[in-house]
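Bumping with the actual sequence this time:
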Amino acid sequence: MREEQFAARVRAAGARIFRVGGCVRDYFRGVPAKDVDYVLAGLAEADFRALFPHAERMGKSFPVYHVCVDGVRCEVAFARREVKTGRGYRGFTTLSDPSVTIEEDLFRRDTTMNAMAIELPDGMLHDPYDGRTDIAAGVIRAVSAHFTEDPVRALRAARQAAVFGYAVEERTLSYMRACAAELCCEPQERLLGELRRALAAPRPSVFFRVLEAADLLAVTFPEIAALAGQTQPAEFHPEGDALAHTYEIIDAAARETSDLAARFAALVHDIGKGLTPQEMLPHHYGHEKTGLDALAAWHARMPLPHAWRRAAAFVIRQHMRAPRLTHIGKIADLLLGIGASGLTMEQFGIIIRADHGTLPPYLAHGAAYLAAMQAVTGHDAPPACKGRAVGAWLRDARIRVLKKILLENE
């Protein structure tokens, strides 16, 4: 069914249909929409089902259907009002009936750029909160104090700032601060979902900077917040404390890789510095070990994807020693470890170069060196070599391969 046919059938039934949400926002941002969502007003659910008998109901507490429009499964929600009755995102009473208007539906939304609608079929814009002006100005602005009723909206605003490169205006920052108490009680998977999207942004640091400005960083990501004020030797870190350094590294990594596990590893490479005692500052001896403790605490609170944890643990352990190795056996073990970390050699090199400013030759050419070592397998071991002895032989044989390559390249 074409969108024109969909809209015509709705209008013929005496109802109104609107494009809403991200597709409208992205239209005025001048970027392609990922999907198209609709809001229906002025029609009873039973009448909708009679019009579209193949529509699949998705919503449990209020009517949301999937309808195939222009060959794509699209979400069609009934216009609704919401009343806050409890804590968190489940603490709402929802009313959806033919009397609810599009203006009421838009009022319950989080920010002005998400509170616009285009009515079909004529394309009339409904923009009661001037979202189009805020998009043009690059501003994230809450529609109203209702923003605070779902506390994860605070993370969503910070994430959108990172994704779109927009600024969060002061009143909205104050609403974000008001979300602190309820954020402590939110399901951690909701926070993880926003972190995942923020890490995919062009400048992930903006997400954390906005949370910091709204006094929410310690509430949501305490291991990152703990880096604030942790001074470092100025000759190595003119950018400032460990938090400023972390912001630099995550953005540098994001410029070179889209892989979320690699970006997360860059984000947490120095989280051990948040546990450094004040009397030790500006030095951070042993932060590789305390970093693993901080990562474990994060995972205990907010279960992290396995690929993220594996990559992060490897980078935390190795990021200080990787550029300084001279012993060929240790270099071989490091290169083989990268191969088992889930990171590519390029991704590991991106993090190390961002952290140290340069790469040693064995990392710059690490992919070729690792491939040459991995060309030797346990099947090449002498027939008399059995059991654990095969592993020892294999390591020695691979070290010999690496030593030969390094000598040839001197």
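The tokens above came from a reply further down the thread. Residues 388-408 form the longest helix (21 residues).
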